[in-house]
């Protein structure tokens, strides 16, 4: 929001929220009806192609978002090092408003103007006129409009909303108040209306021109340098006709320079060119991939989790992962992604953060949770994890923490398989069990004398039970098998380990395998504390459910603008934090297999 919002700041369909797309419904229905009901000679293919074009614009923008977030996480070519925060993601979540505005304009123009309907696919004169009008009037008028928007009166009421984002993402380019977008709409309509009124329009000119605007807008705000220096060395005049991401980045950091739209020659003419433009372009182009100190290795969870990744849909990634009904409509893309994971065998970078001088990254194995339970997939998954560890070791990364099912007992003995196979590893492999145990123990209410332990018995579960029994807290189990396993693992449980039949405990420590029937046996007001990496399904509204072991992150960790799976904002899992702690403390041993750090020390 601008510092002093002016009139027509909000979009007219803001009250509709997520249902704003219904404003296009009448036009879309009419378009489909016309294609199906009318004779072939009366059909207007131009009108029919408006909807696919709008969908293409959304896909085009999303491709840039994914590419930008991936490249800035890697670090090569990155321009501005500051991070993005949740408030910026929230501010920019309605980037599709301008696509709706374009759709309405196209449909209305198609109905009103004869020159905007039934236009041919290609006309050379249409392409030439569009290029000339853009290079002339559009670029010139935009330059002076942009300078006017930086006058304190208009800036405080409108343009400051766009400049709230110092570190830009591709979609930052279209984040403006409604009134400002109206001015851009009239400006960019100049070439198109000229074609319509002269009846020289073509689909390639109309749709291609807007695609060009989207491409240049996204590129200019992507925060990584994509234009090579050698291009301007070979074609020197090109730097007057095409800006670069670093060129426009200076406008967002310096404010009073580099006002041009896409062609910087007006900044040269009117002496508003930032003197650091060439230097920043050169330094950003030469910037190499960043080598982190700590890597957290995770994986995909549900088929829909690809959309919740930081590289996926920004408005979903910034919220805890939950199922959305409308994602079912994207089943072709979801199915294709699952097929792709069967063939693609390398990890990919999901996120990059900075914690003071510590550089952090999250990598993901391209496998879903259910694939970890398929026997034929265990060997390929183990190979990918092993390759990630060896890659981290080769790059000089200090610590690699294993997240979710990447550290399964049956899969790789909590990471011990890799350390045994490669005894000379310099990178420290961490399963985070000690910190997860410490967080669970710390979550148990003071004064608790008895807890019930139910779920799959893991390394964390054994350690929790042992520690509580040593502290004099009675640990009850539901099943005799669990009791026997715990009893055989430690000889000093004594009378504090029992089999429970009445289920009167108000504190339950639960892991994977907890059923609905078992939850219904808990007394009203029971606190369910999860010790596993996956949360239980919540069947009881009269009970409390703790998050999976996690901690709030300090404000000094930069670039945290997505949620880790089902955890809330600004929260990281214990297994991810364990790697950071291990690196900060400079511990020299692995934490994997069945070894653990001292709980009190952690």
TrEMBL record:
Gene Ontology CC terms, in alphabetical order: membrane
Stretches assigned to the Fatty acid hydroxylase domain: 133-272
UniProtKB keywords: Membrane, Transmembrane, Transmembrane helix
Membrane association type: Multi-pass membrane protein
InterPro entries hit by this protein: CER1-like_C (IPR021940), Fatty_acid_hydroxylase (IPR006694), Sterol_Desaturase_Related (IPR050307)
Principal localisation: membrane
Compartments in which it is found: Membrane
One Gene Ontology molecular-function label: iron ion binding
Residue ranges of every copy of the Very-long-chain aldehyde decarbonylase CER1-like C-terminal domain listed in the record: 451-602
Residues annotated as transmembrane: 18-36, 98-114, 126-145, 184-210, 222-243
Family per similarity comment: Belongs to the sterol desaturase family.
Official protein name in the record: Protein ECERIFERUM 1
């Amino acid at each position: 929001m601008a510092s002093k919002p002016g009139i027509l700041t909000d979009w007219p369909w803001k009250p509709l929220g997520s249902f704003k797309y219904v404003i296009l419904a009448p036009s879309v229905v009419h378009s489909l009806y016309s294609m199906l009901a009318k004779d072939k000679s009366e059909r207007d293919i131009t009108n029919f192609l408006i909807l696919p074009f709008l969908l293409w614009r959304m896909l085009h923008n999303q491709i840039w978002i994914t590419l930008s977030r991936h490249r800035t996480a890697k670090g090569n070519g990155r321009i501005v090092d500051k991070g993005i925060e949740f408030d910026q993601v929230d501010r920019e979540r309605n980037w599709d408003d301008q696509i709706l505005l374009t759709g309405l304009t196209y449909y209305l123009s198609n109905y009103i103007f004869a020159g905007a309907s039934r236009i041919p696919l290609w006309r050379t004169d249409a392409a030439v006129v569009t290029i000339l009008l853009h290079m002339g009037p559009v670029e010139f008028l935009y330059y002076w409009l942009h300078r006017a928007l930086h006058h304190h009166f208009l800036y405080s009421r409108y343009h400051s909303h766009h400049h709230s984002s110092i570190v830009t993402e591709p979609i930052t380019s279209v984040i403006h108040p409604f009134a400002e977008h109206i001015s851009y709409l009239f400006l960019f309509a100049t070439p198109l209306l000229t074609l319509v009124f002269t009846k020289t329009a073509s689909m390639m000119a109309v749709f291609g021109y807007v695609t060009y605007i989207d491409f240049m807008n996204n590129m200019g705000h992507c925060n990584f340098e994509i234009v090579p220096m050698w291009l301007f060395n070979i074609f020197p005049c090109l730097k007057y006709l095409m800006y670069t991401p670093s060129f426009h980045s200076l406008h967002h950091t310096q404010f009073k320079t580099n006002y041009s739209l896409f062609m910087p020659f007006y900044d040269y003419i009117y002496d508003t060119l930032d003197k650091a433009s060439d230097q920043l372009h050169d330094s950003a182009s030469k910037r190499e991939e960043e080598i982190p100190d700590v890597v957290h290795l995770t994986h995909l969870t549900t088929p829909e989790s690809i959309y919740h990744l930081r590289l996926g849909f920004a408005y979903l990634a910034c919220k805890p992962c939950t199922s959305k009904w409308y994602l079912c409509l994207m089943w072709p893309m979801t199915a294709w992604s699952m097929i792709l994971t069967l063939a693609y065998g390398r990890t990919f970078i999901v996120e990059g953060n900075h914690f003071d001088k510590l550089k952090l990254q999250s990598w993901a194995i391209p496998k879903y949770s259910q694939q970890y339970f398929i026997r034929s997939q265990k060997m390929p998954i183990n190979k990918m994890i092993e390759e990630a560890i060896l890659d981290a070791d080769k790059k000089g990364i200090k610590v690699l923490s294993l997240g979710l099912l990447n550290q399964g007992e049956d899969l790789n003995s909590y990471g011990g398989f890799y350390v045994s196979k490669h005894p000379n590893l310099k990178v420290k492999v961490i399963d985070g069990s000690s910190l997860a145990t410490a967080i669970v123990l710390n979550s148990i209410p003071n004064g608790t004398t008895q807890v019930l332990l139910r779920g799959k018995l893991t390394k964390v579960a054994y350690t929790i039970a042992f520690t509580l029994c040593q502290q004099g807290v009675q640990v009850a189990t539901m099943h005799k098998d669990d009791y026997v396993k715990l009893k055989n693992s430690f000889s000093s449980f004594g009378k504090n380990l029992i089999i429970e039949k009445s289920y009167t405990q108000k504190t339950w420590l639960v892991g994977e395998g907890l059923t609905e029937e078992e939850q219904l046996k808990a007394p009203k007001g029971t606190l369910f504390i999860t010790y596993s990496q996956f949360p239980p399904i919540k069947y009881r509204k009269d009970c409390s459910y703790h998050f999976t072991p996690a901690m709030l992150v300090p404000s000094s960790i930069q670039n945290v603008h997505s949620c880790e799976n089902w955890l809330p904002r600004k929260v990281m899992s214990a297994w991810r934090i364990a790697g950071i702690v291990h690196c900060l403390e400079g511990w020299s041993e692995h934490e994997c297999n069945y070894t653990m750090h001292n709980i009190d020390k952690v």
